[in-house]
Structures are given as C-alpha cells and as structure tokens.
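Why do we bother with holo predictions? Because pocket geometry can differ from the apo form. Keep that in mind while you read this record for flavin-adenine dinucleotide.
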Amino acid sequence: MGVQDFHRASEPSTVAKGPIVAEPLMARAARAAAVAAAHAEAVDRDARFPAEAIAAAKAEGLLGVMVPASLGGEGLGLRQVMEVCYTLGRACASTAMIYAMHQVKVACVVRHGVGSAWHEDFLRRLVREQLLLASSTTEGQGGGNVRSSEAPIERSGDRISLVRAASVISYGEAADAVVTTARRAPDASASDQVLTVFLRADYSLERNLEWDTLGMRGTCSAGFTLRAEGEAAQILPVAYETIHAHSMVPAAHILWSSTWAGVAASAVERARRYLRKAAAAGALPPSAPYFTRANGELRALRALIAAAVDRYEAVMDQPDALSAMDFQSQISLLKVDTSELAVSAVMSAMRCCGLSGYRNDSDASIGRRLRDILSAPIMINNDRILANVGASALLTEVAASIKD
Ligand SMILES: Cc1cc2nc3c(=O)[nH]c(=O)nc-3n(C[C@H](O)[C@H](O)[C@H](O)COP(=O)(O)OP(=O)(O)OC[C@H]3O[C@@H](n4cnc5c(N)ncnc54)[C@H](O)[C@@H]3O)c2cc1C
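The structure, written out:
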C-alpha cells in the first residue's frame, strides 16, 4: 500500500462507522501491533511508510485516545499511551515511532489548545477522522535545536503564512496535518516561537532530501520545503517556550523512550527464544550471560520510564514545578539515559545470539532492531542535551542522600 492508497483508505468515508473504542485499549493496540509485525520487514526493506499498521491503528481508534471525552476522545494520559508505544515497538519500530511522534503533538494540542475554539474543533475532527499529525521542528542549519526557529509566521489580517526549510518531517507525505514551530513574527528573536497546526489542505511539501537511513526507515523522515497558509487562530494560544517545557519535552521523552523500550524488548525476546532452543537441544552457549545483561538493561529502562511518568504526573498541574530546573534536567536526561540503555540492551541481545543474531536470515536475527535503535541517541542528539543540561547541573548541589 503506497502513500496515495493510504490517503484513500484513510478517508473519513471509510472510517465513518467510527473507530472501535468499546474494547480495552491494549487489546486494540495488540491487534494493530500484529498488523505492524506482519509488515515490519517489508517496511524496513523498502523504506516505506507502514501504511497497513497506521490504517489498523486508525481503525482501532488509537489516534485520538488522549483527546478529552468532552471532545469525543477517551481522555487517556501518557501512562496509557506509553504502553501502546511499547507494544507497537515490539512489532515494528517505525510504526511505534510514528505513533509516538503523533501522540506528542496531540499531547501539546490537548494541553494548550483546549479552550481555543479552532483547536477544540480540530481535536473533535482528529478523533472523528483519526487524523495523523506530523511534527516539524528541525529546520535549515539549526539541526536539533528545537528552541530556535528561522522562518517566521507572516500575518496579513487574520491570515498567516509560513515558508520553512523543514529538513526532516517524518511521514510528511502521509500525514493529515503538521504541527510546526516557527518564529512568532519577522521581527521576533529566534527563541520567541509559536506552535501552529496546519491541515493537509493548508500546505504543500516540496521534497528536497530523501530518507535512506540505517534504521527507522519506515518513518520516511524526508526533508521538504513546507509552504503553509491558514488562519491566525491556528496558532496555539500559549508561547512555545511554555509548551516545550510543560508538554513537548515530557511527552516526547516518555513516548520515544517507551518505543525504544519496545524495540529492546523485541530483541530480548529473540535472545530468550534462542537460548531456550539451545537449552532444549542440550547446552546453553557460552554467550548466555549476555541474556542476563540484556534482560537487566530492559528492566532498568522500563523502571526509568515508569519513574519519569510518575514524576511528570505528580507535577503536571503545577507550572512552577514543571518549569523548575530539577524537573527539566531530569526529563531531559531521561532521553539520554533510555536511548543509551536501549542501544546497550539490543547489543547485549545480539551478543547473546552470536552469529545467529548477526545474520539477517535467521529467526534470531537482531539486525533490524539494532539498526532501528541506533537512531535513539541522535534523535535530538544526546551531545546537545548533555551540553544544555550541563550548565544547569553545575548550579545544583550534589545529592546529600540516596532517596531525595
Ligand atoms: C528517526 C528520526 C525521526 C525524526 N523525525 C523528525 C520529525 O518528524 N520532525 C523533525 O523536525 N525532526 C525530526 N528528526 C530530527 C531530530 O529532531 C533532530 O533534529 C536530529 O536528530 C538532530 O540530529 P543531529 O545529530 O544532526 O544533531 P544536531 O542537533 O543537528 O547536531 C549536529 C552535530 O552537532 C553536535 N552538537 C549540536 N549541538 C551541540 C551542543 N550544544 N553541544 C555538543 N554537541 C552538539 C551533535 O552531537 C551532532 O553531532 C528525526 C530524527 C530521527 C533520527
């Protein structure tokens, strides 16, 4: 199924019966994951959008689960969505990352757009039509510096326009809307940013950079010139600085980490099967201790994410605590720690499986998981995060006790 077919298959008429929402979330996620798993190899081989898996997620009503019930959604939180990312990540890393990136944008619009008539209408439509949202933050020479924008929003009365050198937009061509950062106005500084929702009919994408990568090939994260027009009401009514600290970074780091944990779990599961088969044949290979290591790394990874979501939920209604250096450092470093642990867990699983793990043609092959997970440390480069957090860490006292 190509992107064109996907758009046809996802048109509102085909989902008019409405998504299945009566069943428990994880049963619906498991069905979408089964579709994702069936197509994961082809998606990776052909570097193509996982159209079947995303169509299944739409049919299961998974795209609007975080929208409040008053707007037609299920009012679920990151805690539930991270489990969906983990489940999808075990099946197909690209599908899970697409779902995670979509939900990061939904989290921002739900938290900062409710109360704005345009965004409330948009959220209702998102649930009804299961709209898939893409994200544009990377721009021109700025790379992963999300808190800096080059292209400004231009205004003419109530109308706005934006022309952006969007060097990476995952699944840009398959998305139904794009949520993009931009400079507030031509005379604003690079860090004075807004976040704006543009619907598919509002923009054109001129592709100027392909996506032929080691892993995460199905995210189809090509580069484009984004040309968009819309109404001023499409700009979220809160400064991006606040959205970034209160919603974007926590949601991105928790949901990306959950996706990577799913990929790691899939590698660990392969190593487990490999060892059980070897044990049944009479002898464990000398590489068996690597399984213990992989399993421990996966456990540590899950514990980090669980602690982070607890911490976020504890402060999410306290703007001062959310903006505090302590919370911001911890949530920033979550991404650094989980991305490195996930790479390590997948690597340990491969060492456990030895040549069978290294081969592409064995049922213990770890290759795709390893290639996919290697994107984790560079997806907002860990070096950049460490450099940013480093300065504030210098101002913080070294902990005087274990627990506090
Ligand atoms: C799978 C995947 C999907 C993506 N999808 C999207 C998307 O949908 N939309 C989008 O907008 N972007 C997307 N991105 C891009 C992402 O948001 C980052 O822009 C990108 O990963 C930055 O990569 P980079 O390594 O070139 O880092 P950059 O931040 O551009 O940095 C380049 C180099 O400079 C170093 N560096 C930079 N700043 C510092 C610093 N302060 N201190 C020390 N070293 C530094 C880095 O280590 C790196 O080696 C995606 C990336 C991946 C991997």
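Residues 101, 135-138, 143-144, 168-170, 216, 219, 221, 375, 378-381, 383-384, 387 surround flavin-adenine dinucleotide (CB under 6 Å).
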